[in-house]
Design goal:
Two copies of one chain form a homodimer. With 191 residues, chain A is of the alpha/beta class. The first copy, chain A, contains six helices and eleven strands. The first copy, chain A, is globular and about 45 Å long.
Chain lengths: 191, 191
């Protein structure tokens, strides 16, 4: 999406060769009108799959998932939580997610009530980097007996390999913007 | 809102006399169509105030804030974060928020870049109970020199006193549903 790439270049803040901060429109301050356009685009590129629900992860995936749902006829949006009361583990599907940036291992969890066997679930998130969050969500869906209808992210970072790994694992991965490399503050996008 | 009250009675799960869980449509699984109606209602009851931005807090306020922004002509939505890298404190407005339910004190924080002096900011959240989160957000706005255009929450719990305290402090507080009491699993709403 040219419009999105232009916005990333205009408002994104590059840190080193691996990070571009898009706090000003995607994951701290949110440009709702832009997200509505991104949601429409997701509905176009995933028009051939059945979407019974949309799954994302808190916090920064929620806005884009909701704005995407509107263009799929308002299926429920479920957001995975990153912390679960330890006494409630039996009620949740849980999966571990490694963060390469932070060097930590955390959890994603969804109440068993909101993922039902046989449902077609579209995974939506803000970023796809190493693919750990998306893999974690796909694992939750596997545990629940759901089908992964597709994995969509607003911004991919191809150089971190998540896209390749998820495609090799058989998933239908779509990115609205895909970054090839970041060098000296200059972003090169995948053509 | 009768429609909302009916939904709370139908799908809410009461725990004791103080908690009603609305995970199935508001803060784990999200009914986007319902939230769109709630957002429209907020735009009606706050139609007399200027709204330059909407402020909420992660994670469960994000969806309703975004769906509300659509009915105000898409002003930016800013969501306060609950954790801030300790090295970045100088870049954030921070305020402490006590959780009576969890017995903890946590933080809400917004980057100084996204709150500008003189802006009129509408605070939107899913719940208003003791009013601690809303007070914390109002404090962030005070630090930034912004004006609190209003405080709106989907569900108020009058018996926990936040609404009264915030009104006494001079804020324009509006609730789409307001719970008077919860006894033996039966919810009584404020008329």
């Amino acid at each position: 999406m040219d419009m999105l790439n232009e916005r990333i270049v205009k408002d994104g803040v590059c840190i080193g060769t691996e990070i571009v901060k898009v706090d000003s429109f995607l994951n701290h301050q949110i440009d709702v009108e832009l997200l509505d356009k991104l949601g429409k685009k997701f509905s176009e590129i995933f028009s051939d799959v059945q979407v019974d629900k949309i799954l994302t992860v808190e916090a920064s995936g929620i806005a884009v998932a909701c704005m995407t749902a509107r263009h799929f006829g308002n299926p429920p949006v479920v957001f995975a939580k990153k912390t679960v009361p330890s006494t409630m583990n039996d009620d949740f599907f849980c999966s571990e997610v490694r963060s390469f940036t932070k060097g930590t291992v955390s959890m994603v969890a969804v109440s068993k009530k909101y993922l039902n066997k046989g449902e077609n679930i579209l995974i939506i998130d803000d970023f796809l980097a190493h693919g750990e969050a998306a893999s974690g969500m796909a694992d939750l869906l596997k545990q629940a007996g759901c089908k992964v209808a597709g994995i969509g992210a607003v911004i991919g970072k191809r150089f971190q390999g998540g896209e390749k790994r998820l495609k090799e694992a058989g998933y239908n991965v779509k990115l609205l913007s895909n970054i090839e490399k970041i060098i000296d503050g200059k972003i090169t996008f995948v053509l």
